[in-house]
Amino acid sequence: MRFTSFHLMPYRQLDQKRAYAERSSWVVLSNELYDPKVGADEYESYIDHLARGEELGFDVIAVNEHHQTAYGMMPAPNLIASALIQRTKRVKIAIIGRALPLVSNPLAIAEEFAMLDNMSRGRIITGFVRGIGSEYHSTGVNPTFSHERFHEAHDLILQAWTKPGPTQFDGDHYNFRYVNIWPRVYQNPHPEIWIPSQGSTETIQWASDPARRYPFMVTFASEESVIRYLNMYRDAARRHGYEAKGSQLGWAMPVYVADTDEQAIAEATEGAETLFNLYLSQTVEMLLPPGYMSIESFTRTMKMRGKQLMAPRTATMKGLMDSGTVVAGSPKTVRERIARMQDATGLENIIAMLQFGTMPDHLARRSMEMFAAEVMPHFQDKVRTAAAE
Q1: Most buried by CB count within 10 Å: which residue of 30, 243, 264, 266?
Q2: Residue 5, phi then psi, degrees to nearest 5
Q3: What value does the mean pLDDT take over residues 167-174?
Q4: CA 195 – CA 296 distance, rounded (Å)
């Protein structure tokens, strides 16, 4: 099993009273609530947290991209990745969320990743997403063309990475007479590509295609949903004519470890509840702008989650724990939850968000150390034992 330490870099010193009074913590929350001196301290703390992942034995440390929100201060995750390259020597660095449709020149993303891949000597993992609905309000991009732009941008980037240039690219949204990036990527044929998702049928079909077989990571979902979506990926792979490997399946979740279940729940409650009720707070029109989803996906989403999306954010730690959306407990409890999910899906990628919401550094750091010392080795030792046999 491969373990990733993932960070959102939230702005923790948020005026919560004012933020809760707004209709969304995305796009419309005034940036006058941001203090640059506080933000500078947060960046330093978060980069330290991620770099510590190498010392603790994580396989991957990961960042992502979001815009105009206190939820995550990483509109340019490539810059954080560059800082992490200088702070580490061995660990893989994943940028699991470059939103391809939001840019007018995807070749710039191909170039950025190629630079990072060279600077790290082949330690970069890439992640491609469409970007959530709010990002289209932030950037002014028409969400109706989201899927088309995503697929074209992906194809253009793959062409830039794998075909000796100059070549030409002609699409409906992107046209380039010269595709000839310098530098070329360090890894051959290109960096690994992950696809984070909340379960889109179209994304599952596309990522599992035999030409891609991209690792599919389910994020912010209940245990039931994670099992359903990962097994949907397995079923899609079978329809494509092959069996998906565990390395193609992943689960991203907030996780907190302490000496006892009671202690873990008590210490993680504020962080979890602010994450889901404050930082993730969005209205339906922000989250699902017209054209962002197909009619089929929109109908299914509203049928399954409509009441939840329309209701005020009132998540409780108990509810998040009962659904399996948040994992918190003693090392034994956390190991058992991961093992149960592995048995149900065969997944081999755990993307652990070890700081979330307003959780302070000292709690996140201690949980991270316990997770690395008392959870990860249990699964890593199983792999070593199986290999020896």
Answers
A1: 264
A2: -100, 115
A3: 97
A4: 21
